[in-house]
Write a structure and sequence with these properties.
Pfam families: NIPSNAP (PF07978). The protein is of the alpha+beta class and about 270 residues long. Helices cover about 30% and strands about 30% of the residues. The chain has an 8-stranded antiparallel barrel. Helix 6 packs antiparallel against helix 8.
Length: about 270
């Protein structure tokens, strides 16, 4: 399937009621009322995986979530900074780079998130794991880090191809990660609606990156937004609701969600994106 046939190649010129992936023959008409928006439309069987339809690059992202002991935050951050420097010194061998590193300022406190990009997919991840395991220096850093954390979680993600690619932002910003747990079987439906909905969120360049899980907690989606501050976040979100079509995107995606939560993030001093 070429890129023109994928859900991820979308344009604001597409009529807002059009469907991008084959669905059941039942159509939602404008006069169906609010109840019709609560019905999750089914996706017809396909011989191509949903991951291939939503993400078109051989790039895998690793999202590390660390819950830090409250009395060890500074020591933890220094340890992780040294780990980042180690990885950067072996970038050509590892094939990975840090996209962003943040601590949570609103939400799950004493928590850090680190997002890594592996160009070359799971093959690069396999090779990197071997190198990390065989490096005494890296093992020593991980052992030390164990003294500073209460728990850890790792997810491997793919990027939605219709989202920005997470390029570094200059200046001083805050980030918001909105995490969704979707109903199984609804990922394509989510992608269809958000590919259109994202066109209403371009005015302030707030969209940073969007991902969906491959390994770890499944049917998880993470949308990352960038704002100057909390007031800018408020103003941007309020202005979005004045855009015709945004309310429809929300109406069609809310029924797909099992659970959602958001966290406000602040970049660490060693984060590539600020």
């Amino acid at each position: 399937m070429n890129s023109l046939n994928r859900v991820l190649i979308l344009s604001s010129a597409i009529p807002k009621n059009s469907r991008l992936i084959s669905t059941t023959s039942t159509r939602l008409n404008a006069d169906d009322g609010w109840l019709s928006k609560l019905l999750v439309r089914k996706i017809e069987p396909t011989k191509e995986s949903h991951s291939r339809m939503l993400s078109d690059k051989e790039i895998v992202y690793a999202l590390h979530t660390h819950n830090i002991r409250p009395d060890s935050v500074d020591k933890y951050l220094q340890n992780y900074k040294t780990s980042v420097e180690f990885v950067e010194s072996k970038k050509s061998e590892l094939g990975c780079e840090l996209v962003g590193s943040w601590t949570v300022s609103v939400g799950d406190m004493d928590q850090a998130l680190h997002l890594w990009r592996y160009v070359g997919g799971f093959e690069k991840i396999d090779k990197a794991k071997i190198l990390f395991k065989e490096s005494p220096d890296y093992r020593a850093l991980e052992k030390e880090r164990g003294n500073y954390v209460r728990s850890r979680h790792l997810q491997y993600l793919l990027a939605f191809s219709f989202w920005p690619t997470g390029d570094p932002r200059p200046g001083k910003n805050i980030y918001e990660i909105r995490s969704y747990s979707l109903k199984p079987g609804t990922m394509i439906e989510w992608g269809n609606n958000w590919a259109r909905g994202l066109t209403y969120r371009r005015s302030q360049n707030e969209a940073f990156a969007g991902y969906f899980s491959q390994i770890g907690r499944l049917y998880n989606v993470h949308h990352i937004w960038c704002y100057k501050d909390l007031q800018a976040r408020r103003e941007t979100r309020e202005s979005t609701w004045r855009n015709p079509g945004w309310d429809e995107c929300v109406a069609y995606t809310v029924p797909l969600i099992r659970e959602m939560h958001c966290r406000i993030l602040e970049p660490t001093e060693f984060s590539p994106t600020q």
